[in-house]
Design a protein that fits this description.
Length: 221
């Protein structure tokens, strides 16, 4: 008896286990061995479904995080454009240079974790010059965009943790199903002998045959 490799997917292990559960179920002397396999297999299928659901959730959270990141970038660029317009497009103007020691593009293209400190500095500068009409207009817009981005980032990180946990739970269920199959094999040896026990397990070398147009057969994994 040979189980699928450790690197085999959960789906492969489930299909392998279904084969054995059916083989033992149809014979009176071995049918009591089917239920533990079925139960362990169903437990793994539950974890597979949970892992897929968590992966979808984290993908959705990532999309929202990136959307909020774009909104934050746009808020910073809009401030820059309006400020440039008021200064005759002069990046050497003191008002512009006091806010943007880095060009807006250098701030907005940064990864979120690296951008955070630069945006906080920008907000601080806007806050200390709130008498400026342009500053006063854009400060709450940027603050709101940053707050939404921070919330989306936290939500995404939490989703990643949940997704990783679902992988860990799935691995544990894989191990439980493997152990059940090993125990089943031992019991089958006691009942039917080793040679017959092997027949209850899907052969690793089994191949599906497919007729070719030439009338021959090709072998597919």
């Amino acid at each position: 008896m040979k189980l699928p490799s450790e690197g085999a997917s959960s789906e492969v292990l489930v299909n392998y286990s279904v084969y054995t559960s059916v083989r033992v179920a149809v014979k009176h002397e071995t049918n009591q061995l089917s239920a533990p396999i079925v139960n362990a297999c169903e437990a793994l299928e539950t974890k597979i479904a949970e892992r897929k659901r968590k992966a979808k959730e984290s993908a959705a959270k990532l999309a929202m995080r990136d959307e909020k990141n774009d909104c934050c970038d746009n808020a910073i660029v809009n401030l820059s454009l309006e400020l440039l317009s008021s200064t005759g497009n002069s990046r050497e103007d003191s008002r512009y240079k006091s806010l943007f020691t880095k060009t807006p593009s250098r701030i907005t293209v940064q990864p979120i974790k690296d951008k955070s400190s630069d945006v906080k500095v920008l907000i601080q500068k806007l806050s200390t010059n709130s008498g400026d009409a342009i500053y006063a207009k854009h400060l709450p817009l940027i603050q709101a965009a940053v707050a939404e981005l921070d919330e989306a980032e936290a939500s995404y990180q939490a989703a990643l943790i949940n997704e990783q946990s679902s992988y860990d739970f799935e691995k544990a269920s894989q191990a439980a199903l493997r152990s059940t199959l090993v125990r089943t094999y031992g019991k089958l040896i006691d009942i039917a002998g080793k040679k017959n026990a092997d027949n209850y397990f899907k052969k690793a070398a089994d191949k599906k045959k497919k007729e070719t147009k030439q009338g021959g057969t090709s072998i597919e994994p």
